[in-house]
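Format notes (please read before filing issues)

Several people have asked whether sequences and structure tokens are stored in separate files. They are not. Every record keeps both together, in the order shown below: the sequence lines, then the token lines. Line labels are part of the format and must not be stripped during preprocessing.
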Amino acid sequence: MKELLPSMEFEFDFDSIGEETHQKYLGKFKYRRLNIKNRTEQIKMKVKLDESLQIDDELYMLFEMVSWLRFGFVSYPDWWKENDYGLELYDINIITELYKKVNEFENNWSKQLLEKKKDE
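Then the structure lines:
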């Protein structure tokens, strides 16, 4: 019998203002946990962005966030796609806020899985 896992997806409404441009970013996002194929694509994108440059930790983390969001979002507002899935944005805070929501989901997913294991 297949073990039931916590949901691999979640949807959320996003409403924020860019710190640099003061533009308003609104919309609904749907995120799906990365499977092996998506994780491979995420890593390839991050390596391509990095290009083995000596970059600081902040830029490295930005590459991690953008690439993770690129392959984790399965539906999103038009502005996300029009801005090359985050790469064309000037407002770094938008990337960090979106990633924070995704990271919170990932952490909660792991906690739910541990709770299910305890209950077995």
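For reference, the curators noted about this record: DSSP finds four helices and three strands in the chain. The beta strands are 9-17, 24-32, 73-75.
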